[in-house]
C-alpha cells in the first residue's frame, strides 16, 4: 500500500524507501482520541470480570505459589513458540529440576533458552514493578538484554535500539513486508511511548494495554525480540496500574493460536485505522485467557480436594499425595529434601504413586529419573 492510499484514520504514514516504503507512526497519544464503542466497553467489562474471578480464586488455594510460577512458565513457552521455538512446558520444568540453583554453566539448547530468558525477564520485571519502579526505556532495554542473553543472532543489537532497518514478512503470501521506522526515528517515538505509559494512558487499562502493545510492535525498536518484549509489557503495564493484583493471566497462548490474525489486526490499524477490530481481538484474548486461568485453577483445586480425600491417611505416601500439587515435577532424591525422609522411603513413595497412576517417569533412563504429576500436567498444559 502506497503512502497516498492510507486513509486519514490511519495513525501514521508510509514514507518512500527502497525497496519498500517504511511506516512512520504518529507519536502517542492517538489523535484524535478514540471513540470507544459499546461493544468494546462490553468486552472490557467481560474481561475485567474474568480477571477478577482469577484473582479471587487464586488467593484461596494452597498451591498459589506453584500456580503463579507454572503460569509464568507457560507464558514463557507460548511466547517463545510464537517466534518459532520448539519448546514444551515440560522442558522448562525439567530444566529447573535439574538446575535448582540456576547454574549458568549448564548447557541449554537455544529454543529452551529463549523460554528460560522470557521467564527470567518477566519475573525480573514484575519484581521491579512490585518494588515501585516505573516502566521506563531503561527498564525496557534491560529486559531486552535478558531476553536475548545467549540467543542473539549475528548483527543483533542487544539492550539498545536497532541500528538498521528491518523488514517483517507478512503471514499472507504475496503481501509485501511491513517495514517499521528508521533507526533515526526510534528514540522520539519510544519516548512518546514511555510518556504515555507513565501518564497512565487515556482509557481503561485494558484498552491502553492494547494501544501500547500495538504501538510497540509497530515501532519495532529492537533488532530482535520485539514480539516477546511487547507481550511481556502487556503484563507489566496491567500490573503497574493495579489491574492485576496477582498476574495470573497471560496472553501469548491466545496470540499463538491466532498468529495470522494477531499480525494482520495490528497492520490494519496502521493502514486503515482499524482500532475497533484490534481492540476487540485483544480484549477477547485477555478475556478468554482469564477464563482459562480460572477454569484451570478450579480444576487444580478440585484435584487437590480429591487427593486429600483419597489419601487421607498418615503414611508418607499419603502426606506427599496431599502435597503433590506443590511438587509437580521432581526427582526421587528431591523428596528426601522436601519431606525429610530417607532415600528408601522416597523411592517407596514414588513407586506407590506411580502404581496408582498419579506419577509418570519421563526420562526413560535407568539413572537420574524424573517424575511428573500426570493430572497436574494435564491441566496445566
UniProtKB/TrEMBL annotation:
Domain Fido, first and last residues per copy: 135-284
Domain of life where this protein originates: Archaea
PANTHER family for the chain: FIDO DOMAIN-CONTAINING PROTEIN (PTHR13504:SF38), FIDO DOMAIN-CONTAINING PROTEIN DDB_G0283145 (PTHR13504)
Designated name of the protein: Fic family protein
Organism: Haloarcula saliterrae
Lineage: Archaea, Methanobacteriati, Methanobacteriota, Stenosarchaea group, Halobacteria
